[in-house]
């Protein structure tokens, strides 16, 4: 199995409309031998939306991974010192999270997980999902594209006519991006037609 023995911190942030896609990615990774530990943002931990209730999402994460959730900053801090993971994935990664990461703001469990993991020069994979990727967040995406040990899942405009600034990663490409990131390589091309 491709992911046998790979320990992955799988962080989920509040792009609630994308979480259903992430569930499928998590199941695939587990089926292919990965060991996943779910890490959730405060929004995922506490906010019910039209896309699902927080408690229901959390229960699914537990059932898929057979692990308890990391949902506080103190729980995420030991990730680096204990070298807990081979890779940390943030999927979906909201514009808020990527902006804070690009600017060194660490005020959520997900951001602490990424910062703590990066201290060991280990890969962090981002699967962006943001309505302002070609707006205010364009510079933050640029910063992260050139940040050592940060890798992006291929992404594109999901609705260029109605939401011209919106960018979303191809969530089904998270697994192959992880494999390449663990080899120190950025999957290419990173800019793709979202509808392909």
Characteristic key phrases:
196 residues; alpha/beta; Rossmann fold; 7-stranded mixed beta sheet; 8 helices; globular
Walk me through the structure.
Strands 1, 2, 3, 4, 5, 6 and 7 form a seven-stranded mixed β-sheet that branches. 43% of the residues are buried. Helix 1 packs parallel to helix 3 and helix 5 packs across helix 7. It is globular and about 40 Å long. It is built from eight helices and seven strands. It starts with 6 loop residues before the first strand and ends in a 15-residue tail after the last helix. It has a single domain, classed as 3-Layer(aba) Sandwich (Rossmann fold), CATH 3.40.50.
What layout of secondary structure does this protein have?
Elements: E1 7-12, H1 19-31, E2 35-40, H2 42-46, H3 54-65, H4 73-76, E3 87-93, H5 95-102, H6 109-118, E4 124-130, H7 138-145, E5 150-152, E6 155-157, E7 167-169, H8 174-181
Parallel strand pairs: 1-2, 1-3, 3-4, 4-5
Antiparallel strand pairs: 4-7, 6-7
Helix pairs in contact: 1-3, 5-7
């Amino acid at each position: 199995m491709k992911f046998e023995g790979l320990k992955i911190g799988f962080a989920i942030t509040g792009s609630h409309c994308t979480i259903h896609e992430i569930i499928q990615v998590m199941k695939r990774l587990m089926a292919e031998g990965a060991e996943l530990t779910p890490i959730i943002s405060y929004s995922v931990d506490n906010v019910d939306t039209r896309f699902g209730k927080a408690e229901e999402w959390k229960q699914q994460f537990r059932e898929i991974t057979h692990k308890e959730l990391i949902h506080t900053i103190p729980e995420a801090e030991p990730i680096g010192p204990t070298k807990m993971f081979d890779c940390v994935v943030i999927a979906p990664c909201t514009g808020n999270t990527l902006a804070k990461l690009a600017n060194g703001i660490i005020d959520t469990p997900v951001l602490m997980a990424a910062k703590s993991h990066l201290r060991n020069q280990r890969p962090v994979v981002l699967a962006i999902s943001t309505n302002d990727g070609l707006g205010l967040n364009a510079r933050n995406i640029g910063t992260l594209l050139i940040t050592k040990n940060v890798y992006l899942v291929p992404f594109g405009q999901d609705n260029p006519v109605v939401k011209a600034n919106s960018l979303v990663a191809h969530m089904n490409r998270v697994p192959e991006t992880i494999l390449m990131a663990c080899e120190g390589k950025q999957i290419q091309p990173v800019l793709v037609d979202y509808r392909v």
